[in-house]
Amino acid sequence: MEKIADISKTTAVKAKTTTSKGDRIFDIVNITLLTIVVLVCLIPFIHILAISLSSARPIMSGEVSLFPVEWTTEAYVKVFSDMSMIRSLGFTVMLTVIFTILCMAMTIAAGYPLSKSNLKGRGFFMVLIIITMFFSGGIIPEYILVRNLHLLDTMWALILPGLISPFYLIIMISFFRNIPESLEEAAEMDGSSHFYTLWRIILPLSLPVIATLSLFYAVGRWNGFMDTLMYINSPELYPLQLKLYQLIQNNMASELMRNEVVGSAQMMPESLKAASVIFATIPILIVYPWLQRYFVSGVMLGAVKG
């Protein structure tokens, strides 16, 4: 019996050792892949940052890679002294905040009732939502609709057409359905209404999904420029991305003119374009650390006791 016990102990130790080795290999592979992904994402950003802090000569000669050459902040001085860029930044921040708040309000208002299995017509509404993920009217009908609603050249043309995303709505519905029904039943027994239950019980438990979808909505609005290209004509309503698009287009036109007639146009320095890109990217990157702490799926752990 003692020999059998020793054999079983030896086997268990070997199995544990094999498992620990497999876990270490798996961790090494995960860390390696994560490092590669981080480098792939960071290297272009670092390259643009290096160009924005370098002078014109090393940029044109191709000397700048990941570190600035002939360090200078002249490009950032020009960007921050351009009042049109500052005005676009302020408008883009205001537009993104309003858009995100309204989108989350609509997503929550639609997702909460659709998460209830006893809602009459729930399947019909879900089919309509899913259809919109695969089929749309197209750009021209959307433009005609915005024009007929007298939204052209207004801020609301950038907000109302994309006020809710079917994909994000489905994510919200799935999250609401995973919340234990016993919480709502207990609230109903205490005389709580649906709105009060949603506000005081459901939404505090939904901070992770609210933070995540808010970030997705905000990034999508911050990076959007096609709708402004179609709907906006007033320069005071230009968001940052449209300003960057115009800078690049004007630079390309100037380069073509310079090729035709030498000295007829001056091409924008690459450092100024890079500084404009950094200027438009940094604000949305600053938001992420404030929302990262909500990306925790275990917020409901212990909410319901047996």
Automatic annotation (TrEMBL):
It comes from the Bacteria. It holds the Pfam family BPD_transp_1. The chain crosses the membrane at residues 28-51, 88-112, 124-144, 156-176, 196-220, 274-291. Keywords: Cell membrane, Membrane, Transmembrane, Transmembrane helix, Transport. Residues 89-290 form the ABC transmembrane type-1 domain. InterPro entries: MetI-like (IPR000515), MetI-like_sf (IPR035906). PROSITE patterns: ABC_TM1. The keyword Transmembrane applies. CDD domains: TM_PBP2. It is found in: Cell membrane. It is a multi-pass membrane protein. Belongs to the binding-protein-dependent transport system permease family. This is Carbohydrate ABC transporter permease. It comes from Paenibacillus nicotianae.
